[in-house]
Amino acid sequence: MNDIFTEYDVFDITIHSYKYQHCGTSIYGECHMKPAIIRPNGDFIPSELSRLELGKVDVSGGWHDAGDYGKYIPTAAVTVYQLLLLADLFPVFAAENPVLLEEAAFELSWMLKMQDDDGGVYHKVNTYDFCDMVMPDMDTEPQLLYEKSSSAAAYFAAATAYACRFNSNAFPARERIYDSAIRAGNYLKKILPPDYEVLPSVDRTGPYIPAGVDTICIWAFAELYRLTGDRQWYDLCVSINSMHMPVISGPLGWENMSAAAVWALYQEDGTAYYREQILAEAERICRCSADDDFGCALQENEYLWGSNKFAAAYGLLLILAAEICDDTVCRKLYYSTASKQLKYILGNNALGKCFITGFGNNPVCNPHHRIVQASKTVIPGLLVGGPNNSAEDGCYPAGLGKLGYADLPEAYSCNEYAVDYNAPLVFLSGGLAALKKGGQIWS
Ligand code: 9MR
Ligand code: 9MR
Ligand code: ZN
């Protein structure tokens, strides 16, 4: 890729960084092991929680979501999905790099604990407010388990249904995953007459509430259809969109999972309509990239919180498109444009910054990350959010577009790491590395 680093090096460092996010019994000692308290309804005074008679659930384990210690189903599900997608497309590569399925399995085991007996899924577990910049074992405020939401059921059903495709010793038993997926799907089906959303409380930590739950539900029903072949799930998929076949309506991320839904439906049925959706999106991405000085496919209005994640996700989509495209010229364009998204993240950008910690030339040094800041160590392989025009953290001026970035520990809206930022980057770098090894691409 350049003289020193290969795509494989990026894959290797980004996938291995997940171990630094392990919650429970981890390399830092134990953290967040006490059962979480089911959050009481309505308002409450956090300091009085211990006096209330509340249910408790063991939801230990899983990855800390980001620079904070929350654990959230939306990001867990989309991250597991993207790691598994890489393993699905490139099984030989996955076999050579067992850490990929091991990390997915680690998170999956936690996700299963987040499901209630009725099939519903708790949205997140976190303290009432974010803790200070301390190590995880110092974060001892009560862990709260947030309401079962419609979106959590959908994210969970989709990711667990997809996980049933894998036969790995690292995974929980397949029957258990299968059963969990179906139960979440049935729960969702029951609570979901059109437009009906069940929202969780937020308190003072991350919301991860998608603007519309529809693309997440479509994704869930698409994966359940792919898993079971049962037409009822396909009918639900279509019914969500007023009987229209699903379309790709945004870049892949927890906000919008339409691309994953369309991919699943195409894989299951081979319908030309879905194939064209993917190829049309790939063409659009290539045009945007061609219009940009650095070949980055992000448009002006896409330099928002987590923009790097979307650049990587565009690369991911191009690799998917190349898989189903039989025109050699197009395939080459898709691969080279995917590679440009990776180069953008590595420093071919207006800031000359490598957005991955501890890697490459001029990397991020001060990520918003509690363990990094509290321990004053460099954790390598963390992708930060990247340029954000809105500057919600107030650490740098808003309105700077692709230059809206500051390498400061407080700058959480452009310089925080999150598990779902690394996910498309693991896919993109791993996919390009696997293709290169297989002789499908040369440069
Ligand atoms: O550390 C928190 C980070 O994970 C979130 O993305 C961000 C926005 O919700 O909030 C950070 O926490 C800050 C809090 O919101 C306000 N007090 C300072 C906290 C640390 O910077
Ligand atoms: O990555 C998330 C981004 O897409 C949202 O716009 C933003 C505001 O809701 O939240 C980001 O996620 C943060 C979460 O809310 C709290 N923990 C840290 C996450 C990464 O900054
Ligand atoms: Zn923890």
Automatic annotation (TrEMBL):
From the UniProt record, list the reaction(s) this protein catalyses: Endohydrolysis of (1->4)-beta-D-glucosidic linkages in cellulose, lichenin and cereal beta-D-glucans
Q: Which UniProt keywords apply?
A: Carbohydrate metabolism, Cellulose degradation, Glycosidase, Hydrolase, Polysaccharide degradation
**Biological processes per GO annotation:** cellulose catabolic process
Q: Which family does it belong to?
A: Belongs to the glycosyl hydrolase 9 (cellulase E) family.
The reply on keyword rRNA-binding is no
Q: Could you tell me one molecular function GO term of this UniProt entry? A: cellulase activity
The enzyme class is hydrolase
Cited InterPro entries:
6-hairpin_glycosidase_sf (IPR008928), 6hp_glycosidase-like_sf (IPR012341), Glyco_hydro_9 (IPR001701), Glyco_hydro_9_Asp/Glu_AS (IPR033126), Glyco_hydro_9_His_AS (IPR018221)
Which residue numbers delimit the Glycoside hydrolase family domain? Answer: 12-428
Q: Where is the active site?
A: 368, 407, 416
Q: Which domain of life is it from?
A: Bacteria
- What Pfam families does the database record attribute to this sequence? Glyco_hydro_9
Name the SUPFAM superfamilies on file.
Six-hairpin glycosidases
Protein name as annotated: Endoglucanase
The residue stretches assigned to a coiled coil in this entry are none
What does the record give as EC number? 3.2.1.4
